[in-house]
Write a structure and sequence with these properties.
Largest interface: A-B, 26 and 38 residues
Shape of chain A: rod-shaped
Strand content of chain B: under 5%
Order of helices and strands of chain A: H
Number of helices of chain B: 22
Radius of gyration of chain B: 24 Å
Largest sheet of chain A: none
Largest sheet of chain B: none
Structural class of chain B: mainly alpha
Number of strands of chain A: 0
Structural class of chain A: mainly alpha
Shape of chain B: globular
Distance between the termini of chain A: 62 Å
Oligomer: heterodimer
Helix content of chain B: over 70%
Number of helices of chain A: 1
Distance between the termini of chain B: 80 Å
Helix content of chain A: 55-70%
C-alpha cells in the first residue's frame, strides 16, 4: 500500500518544485560561467 | 588570540553546548533518542544536514584551495541539487513509510539480513575510519598556527561532543548543528568582509576582482573534460551527482538527519533547502580565498604558510637564492598590480608561483614531508591580520564545524551499532529502556573512540587525507545496492549481496591500478553493482524458468 502524495506548501506539486530547483541549478551554472568569462576575460584578452 | 577573541570563543562554545543539552532533555525513549520522535521541523534538519557536511578541514582548506588553485572546486557541488531532487522524490517516501531507524534496516525489508549486515559493516568501517580525522585534522592545523597542544584541542572538542551527544541524542545534535551553522555562516561572512576591507586604500573591489581574475582565481566554471581531473563541469555534474546521491542517500550520518522529520514534506524541504543553498555557500567560502589571494598580492606572504616547514626551509643552504627569487617576484607582481598592467601582472604572477613551487620542492627534499600548505593559508591570514573578536569568532566557527561533523558521525555510528548489529543480531527482543541505555553507552563508546583515533591520527601526516578519501571508496557500492532496492524488483537477497562485493572489488582494483579521479569511483562502483545485480538476477531468473 502506498501513502498518498503530500501536497507541498508552495507551487502546487512536488514535480513543479523539482523542476524549479533544476531550473535554478541551470541558472546558477550559467551565472557562474558568465562570472568566469567576465573576470578572466577582462585582463587576459 | 587576544582577550576579546577568547571571550567570543568561550562564549560561543558554552552557548552551543548548553543549548544542545537543553534541547536534548526528555530523550527518554529509543525513538526520541535516535530519531527525535520524528518531530523535527524542516529548517532544523536542513541546517543540520549542512553543518554535518561542512567539516572544519573543509572550512579551513577550501579557502586555501581557492587561494592556490582558484574557485573551480565549486563544480564538485553541481551534482548536489540533482541528487537532492532524486533523494527527495524516491528515497524519502520509502524510508519514511517503512518506519526505519537506519537506511540499512530498509535493505533487510527489501533484500535479506546478510545484505543489511554487509552494508552496515561497510558503513561502520568507513565512518569509523573517518570520525577521528574530523577532530584531529583541525587540531593539527591549530597546533601549527597557534601553538595550542593538539591533544588538548582534540580532547576539548571530543569532550564537548560526547557531553551533548550522549545526554541528548539526536535532538541535541540537531539543535547544536543549527547554532553551529549560524556561527559558521557569521564567521564566514566576517572573514569575507574583513578580507575585502583590509585591502590597501586605493584598491577598489573591482580592482580586486580583476587581479584575482587575471591570476586565474575566479574560475568557478571549467568546460574542458579530463577524466583525471575532478574539477570541471562534467565531472561535477556526473561524478558529483553520484557522490551526493551516495552521501545524502546512503550514508547514515546524513540519512539520520532527515529521518527525524515529522512528515515527508518536512524531510523533502530540508533536502531541497540544501539543493538551493549549498552552491552559494561554497561560492562565498571560495571567494573569501580569492580575496585573501589579492590581499597577499600587496602584503608579502611567507614562502611557505606552514610555519614549521618554513623554519626548516630557512636552514637550507639553497634558501638564500630561493628567497631572493621569491622576493623579486613578489615585488614585480605588486608593482604590476599597482600599475594595473594586466600582461605584466600575469607574467609576474607566473614567476611568483614558480618561485613558490621551487621553495616547496626544496622544503619537501629537506624534510621528506609533503610541502603543500593549503590548510594553513586561511588561518595565517585570520590570526595575523583580522581584528580582535573576529579571530575568536572564526576559531569558534572552526570548532563548530569540527564538532557538528563529529557529533553526527558518533550519533550515526551508535545508531547503526544498536539497531543494525546489537538489536538485530546480538540481543533481539529487548525492552525499549534496554535499547535506550545501549544507545547511550554506544554513543559514549564511539565518542571516546573518536578522541582516541584522533589522537593517533595526528601522527599520520598526509595519511590523514588518504584515510579521509578511503571513505569514498565505499560510496559507489552502497549507492548501487540502494538503486537495486528501489528500482529492480526482481533482484533478491543473495544477488544484491554478491553485487555489493563485486562492486567493492572493482572499485578497489580501479583505485589501486588506475589514476581515475575519486569522483568517478562513485560512478564506477554504482554501475558495477547495478550491472552485476541485473546480470545475476537475469541468469537466476532464466534458471528458475521451467522448460
Amino acid at each position: 500500500m502506498t501513502t498518498p502524495e503530500e501536497r507541498p506548501p508552495f507551487l502546487g506539486s512536488w514535480q513543479r518544485i523539482y523542476f524549479a530547483v533544476a531550473l535554478y541549478l541551470a541558472a546558477v551554472i550559467a551565472l557562474l560561467a558568465w562570472f568566469t568569462r567576465s573576470w578572466n576575460w577582462s585582463w587576459n584578452r | 588570540m587576544r582577550p576579546a577573541d577568547w571571550l567570543v570563543l568561550v562564549a560561543s562554545l558554552t552557548i552551543i553546548v548548553a543549548y544542545g543539552m537543553y534541547r536534548g532533555r526528555g530523550s527518554d525513549t529509543t525513538s526520541k533518542y535516535l530519531l527525535a520522535g520524528k518531530s523535527m521541523p524542516w529548517y532544523a534538519m536542513a541546517l543540520s544536514i549542512m553543518a554535518t557536511q561542512a567539516s572544519a578541514i573543509t572550512f579551513i582548506s577550501t579557502t586555501g584551495q581557492s587561494y592556490a588553485d582558484g574557485m573551480r572546486f565549486i563544480q564538485m557541488y553541481f551534482g548536489l541539487p540533482i541528487a537532492m531532487i532524486a533523494i527527495a522524490a524516491i528515497a524519502v517516501p520509502r524510508f519514511h513509510n517503512s518506519g526505519v531507524y537506519t537506511a540499512y534496516e530498509y535493505l533487510e525489508k527489501r533484500f535479506d539480513a546478510k545484505t543489511r549486515a554487509l552494508v552496515s559493516v561497510i558503513f561502520l568501517l568507513s565512518r569509523g575510519l573517518a570520525v577521528g580525522v574530523s577532530l584531529s585534522a583541525p587540531a593539527v592545523v591549530l597546533t601549527v598556527i597557534l601553538g595550542w597542544p593538539s591533544q588538548y584541542t582534540t580532547l576539548l572538542m571530543g569532550a564537548l561532543v560526547v557531553a551533548y551527544t550522549v545526554s541528548g541524542g539526536i535532538q541535541a545534535v540537531t539543535w547544536t548543528d543549527v547554532l553551529q551553522m549560524i556561527v559558521m555562516t557569521t564567521g564566514l561572512f566576517a572573514a569575507l568582509f574583513s578580507a575585502i576591507y583590509l585591502l590597501p586604500s586605493g584598491v577598489h573591489f573591482s580592482d580586486a576582482l580583476s587581479i584575482a581574475g587575471s591570476a586565474g582565481r575566479l574560475n568557478p566554471v571549467v568546460w574542458s573534460f579530463d577524466l583525471s581531473d575532478q574539477y570541471n563541469v562534467w565531472s561535477g555534474l556526473l561524478g558529483g551527482t553520484f557522490l551526493a546521491l551516495a552521501y545524502f542517500g546512503c550514508d547514515q550520518s546524513q540519512v539520520q538527519r532527515y529521518l527525524t522529520g515529522r512528515d515527508i514534506t518536512q524531510m523533502r524541504l530540508s533536502l531541497l533547502f540544501n539543493a538551493v543553498a549549498k552552491i552559494p555557500m561554497q561560492f562565498f567560502i571560495l571567494f573569501t580565498g580569492a580575496m585573501v589571494f589579492v590581499f597577499f598580492v600587496y602584503v608579502k606572504p611567507p614562502v611557505n604558510f606552514n610555519p614549521g616547514l618554513n623554519a626548516k626551509l630557512e636552514q637550507q643552504a639553497a634558501y638564500p637564492q630561493v628567497k631572493a627569487r621569491y622576493d623579486a617576484a613578489f615585488d614585480q607582481r605588486r608593482l604590476a598590480a599597482q600599475a594595473a598592467d594586466p600582461a605584466a601582472f600575469h607574467a609576474a604572477n607566473l614567476e611568483f608561483e614558480a618561485a613558490r613551487a621551487s621553495a616547496a620542492k626544496l622544503a619537501a627534499q629537506a624534510t621528506g614531508q609533503e610541502s603543500k600548505d593549503t590548510n594553513y593559508i586561511f588561518l595565517h591570514f585570520v590570526t595575523r591580520y583580522m581584528p580582535a573578536g573576529i579571530v575568536g569568532l572564526i576559531m569558534a566557527a572552526i570548532f563548530a564545524a569540527a564538532m557538528s561533523t563529529a557529533s553526527a558521525e558518533v550519533n550515526s555510528l551508535a545508531t547503526v551499532s544498536v539497531i543494525d548489529v546489537y538489536q538485530r543480531f546480538l540481543k533481539p527482543g529487548g525492552s525499549d529502556p534496554h535499547y535506550l541505555s545501549a544507545s547511550r553507552w554506544l554513543t559514549g563508546f564511539w565518542g571516546i573512540y573518536a578522541v582516541i583515533t584522533a589522537y593517533y591520527a595526528q601522527g599520520l601526516g598526509s595519511l590523514v587525507e588518504a584515510v579521509n578519501k578511503l571513505g569514498s571508496l565505499f560510496y559507489g557500492s552502497m549507492l548501487g545496492v540502494f538503486v537495486l532496492a528501489f528500482f529492480v524488483r526482481r533482484v533478491q537477497g543473495t544477488v544484491a549481496f554478491v553485487a555489493v562485493l563485486t562492486g567493492e572489488a572493482v572499485v578497489f582494483a580501479a583505485w589501486t591500478f588506475t589514476t581515475v579521479a575519486f569522483l568517478w569511483l562513485n560512478v564506477l562502483g554504482c554501475a558495477v553493482v547495478v550491472f552485476t545485480g541485473l546480470l545475476l538476477s537475469l541468469r537466476s531468473g532464466l534458471q528458475a524458468t521451467p522448460r
